[in-house]
Every structure is written in C-alpha cells, then in structure tokens.
Design a protein that fits this description.
13 strands; single chain; flat; five-stranded mixed sheet; 9 helices; alpha+beta
Length: 311
C-alpha cells in the first residue's frame, strides 16, 4: 500500500505542493506553492499564457485538533492578453482552497457557514470560540446567503405571512410544501406583490394558504387555475373554534347531564384492609427454635438454659 504524502493529508485533490510545515507558538504554519494549470481571466474567461509575478497569501485553515493552522500559499499573477478585456492582470484561484477577497480556505468557510446556519450569530460565535475558530458574529452572519429562487413555482406552494417586526412590518414566506424548504421571501404581504411573483414564476398547481383575502385576490388574478386549500394550522384552529362555540351554546345541556350522572352514581367506600390474625410462617421462623422461660428465671432454648441478663 502506497504511503500518503503531506499534500494528500492536508490538501486532498488540490493542486498545491507543500514546501514546509513548521510549528510556532500560534499553531501550525504550512508553506505551499500552487502547481495548477494557468488560470482564466475572471472577466473574459480567456486562459492566461504569461506570468506577471507571484506573491504569498495567508489563509486560515480548519484547526488540526486544538492547533490553529495557517497556510502561506504562493500564487501567481497572470497577464490577460485579450485586448478587448478591461482587466490587465489577475491572480489565480486554487480550486478547493482559495476564493477571491477571502483570508480563509474554502473548507473553513464552509464549516463556518454551516455553524452560522444552525446557530445564528452570537451562539455560533460562542461555539467557534470553544472550537478555536477565529470568527465573530458579524462575520458569521455575512456568510449566510439567500437561496437561489427557481424560475418556476413548485407544484404545491405554501403561502403565509410573518413579522419582520411584530405589529409594524410584515412579509410573505413562500414554501415548497413537498420538499419542505423555503422558496422565496417577499418584502410585504400585499396582493400586488404576490400576484407579480406568481406571474413571474408559473407552475403552481396547488396553493396552500391562510384565510387572508389579499392572497385570494392574488391567486385569482395570476393563477386562476390553481387549487386553493387551507393549511393544516388554520384547519385545526377553525376546528377548535367550532368545538368551543358548540360547547358554549350547549353548556346548560352539558351541565344538566353531568349533574344527572353524579346523582345516579353510587359511591362505594373503598374496602378496609384488616391485619391478619397471625403473622405468616416464613422460612427463617421455621429454622429458628422456639424459646420458653423456666421457673428458675432462665430462657430454655434448644435443650439448654441461658441465664437472664442482670437488671
């Protein structure tokens, strides 16, 4: 079995060559050089032919145990030889390791983004501090990106309003009911905004919504062929309200019936448990010989006399 190199362990599948790994007081420092093919211009996408210069970038990598890892990567700057392109030079990006304008690796950025998605701002920052990841709540929140909005609406579209600020500003959240994920968020809960979204994103066959008249008007204007159904929460709310109303209307009948059942019920006292006439015979009582007291003031046990204690 072939032994793995340092590159296979630290940068699997990435075109870099590790020159040196040193141990410093702050953690591990990995010095590496990019070895990939010449990059493409980010504007015109033409592959570069000439190297302009090179310089060293510092990247924070995922920690190794409790040690912080810093990658000092030497990358190349290329000329863009296309005359129509406004960009004269550009710096290569190493796939799977670097991104433009970032001082952290792709792996570390993905790890921080996952933590931010699950915990949010301050809780995520506290967890990163315990994991020895240098990331504050502002940086973590900047990593969150809005999901891409599809061109067509899902087959079953869920619509409901939510509060940006309760009592002041409300918006609309659109959900793919079958996939269980958010599709888009609208800045308000007016019928005009929702109708415009439905016109730009056709394809909704079933629209699951609440009882708001604004959403009804938008569906009739932009998606008249879609089937409108009430969502589960509002159905349960309507059911509970109907049951409560019925109970209030028939409270006299229910009270009379309850009094009749109480009057006809026979309250039997619980049976009294008396102690047994004599204690049940146990194995230890069967093995223990009986003791009797003699006229001489001694206890006779197992064929011999034992004098009584004084007093």
């Amino acid at each position: 079995m072939a032994s793995k190199t340092v590159e296979d362990v630290l940068f699997p599948g990435i075109d870099v060559r590790v020159e040196r790994v040193s141990d410093s007081s702050g953690g591990l420092v990995v010095e590496a050089i990019s070895t990939g093919r010449p990059g493409r211009c980010p504007d015109c996408r033409k592959q570069a032919q000439r190297v302009h210069s090179s310089y060293q970038r510092s990247l924070d990598e995922r920690p190794l145990g409790s040690r912080r890892v810093v990658v000092r990567l030497r990358v190349r700057r290329y000329f863009c030889d296309r005359r129509s392109c406004s960009r004269r030079t550009f710096v290569e990006q190493v796939g799977g390791l670097t991104e433009r304008h970032r001082r952290s690796s792709v792996g570390l950025t993905g790890l921080l983004r996952s933590i931010a998605v699950e915990l949010g701002g301050r809780p995520a920052a506290r967890l990163c501090h315990r994991l020895r990841l240098a990331a504050g709540r502002t940086r973590l929140l900047r990593l969150l990106k809005a999901p891409a909005v599809p061109d067509r609406a899902p087959r079953v579209l869920g619509v409901d309003e939510f509060a940006f600020r309760k009592g002041c500003t409300y918006g609309t959240v659109l959900v793919d009911v079958e996939a269980g994920r958010v599709v888009d968020v609208l800045p308000d809960h007016t019928s005009e905004t929702f109708a415009a979204w439905l016109a730009e994103h056709p394809g909704a066959e079933i629209i699951c919504r609440d009882r708001a008249t604004a959403y009804t008007k938008a569906v009739k204007e932009a998606a008249p062929h879609a089937l409108e159904v009430a969502d589960r929460w509002h159905l349960l709310q309507n059911l509970s309200a109907a049951v409560e109303k019925t109970c209030h209307q028939h409270c006299d009948c229910l009270r009379k019936r309850a009094e009749e059942e109480t009057a006809t019920a026979v309250l039997e006292p619980p049976p009294m448990l008396l102690p047994p006439a004599e204690l049940p015979r146990t194995q230890i009582m069967e093995r223990t010989p009986t003791a009797t007291r003699t006229s001489t003031g001694c206890w006779r046990r197992a064929g011999r006399s034992v004098p009584l204690p004084a007093g």
